[in-house]
Amino acid sequence: MARALARPDKLYPSVEEAQAMVQSMPSLTLAQRRDRAIVACAFLTGLRAAALSSMRLKHIDCEAETAVQDAREMRAKNGKSFTVRWFPVPSEISLVVVEWKRELESNGFGGEDALFPDSKYLSTPKTSPAPLPILETSGAVNKAFRIASTGVGQSYSPHSARHCLKALGDQICTRSEERKAWSLNLGHESMVITEAHYGKMTEATRMQVLAAIKQKDETSDDEKDLMLRYLLHALTPGSPEYRAARQLVRQREAALDDGVLE
User: Fold this and answer.
1) Number of domains in the chain
2) Which of 74, 78, 210, 219 is the right S-S partner for 85, CB 3.0 to 4.6 Å?
């Protein structure tokens, strides 16, 4: 269901609806898969349309699960450069981005090539050593969101992805440190105010906090139920369920000891 911020014109999707948007998009052609990856990347990184449309392959690291907004090479608001840790959205969204980059690389694309090139460059494998240019405008991003919105019967702008992620952070961030890391990961404009309230936070600390949030959020309802039954002594000792629950509890206790899940 669509959510609204204080002003009624600021509609944004829930995370579940964001997943439905991505999965509803056509993917038969390279151009269609590019559009789908644009929408997925918006929900994965929270980058604005101008930054998304000017990304190169080197700006997305699928192993580290990060994206770089480099103001020297990208259309970045206020000339701000920073590294984004992927937000803890459903894996179906992140997988689209991973598969898109992998497909481009298999077609001869390199780090300096546009991550979301004009469709005219997608008809044949890349053979020229010259880097493929980034999109000149954010038009393709707007178009991709129109297509994605049609699949869920709504009309969402690219910026609605940031509102969606802001709302997700409000739901799952329970400590001031988590809220600050989440805000900084969105490249929040009110960073000075945030620092005045909570103090400065290094990039390394932000990445650690966000990794902990993701780990905390990845505990499924079934796993939580299994741990509860274990703690209530409702499982038969030695059974597969008992052993699985004991392992989950021990992992969680270790994470708490390390300060990961505080």
Assistant:
1) 3
2) 210
Same domain, 223 and 182: no
Tokens for 38, please give them.
């644009």
For 131-200, give the DSSP string: PPPPPSSSHHHHHHHHHHHHTTT----TTHHHHHHHHHHHHH--SHHHHHHHHHHTT-TTHHHHHHHH--
By the 8 A CB rule, do 182 and 210 touch?
Answer: yes
Do 8 and 87 lie in one domain? The reply is yes
Q: Express each pLDDT in 196-252 by its tens digit.
A: 444 456 777 777 777 777 766 555 566 666 666 666 677 788 887 888 878 777 766
Same domain assignment for residues 209 and 228 = no
CB–CB of 213/182 below 8 Å?
Answer: yes
Instruction: Report the distance separating Cα 45 and Cα 48, nearest Å.
Output: 9
Strand, coil or helix: 194: helix
The range of the structural domain enclosing residue 123 comes to 3-162
What does the radius of gyration of the chain's CA atoms come to, in whole angstroms?
20
pTM of the model: 0.74
Residue pair 53/141 in contact (Cβ under 8 Å)? The answer is yes
- Do residue 115 and residue 17 come from a single domain? yes
Which residue do the tokens 């909570």 mark? 198
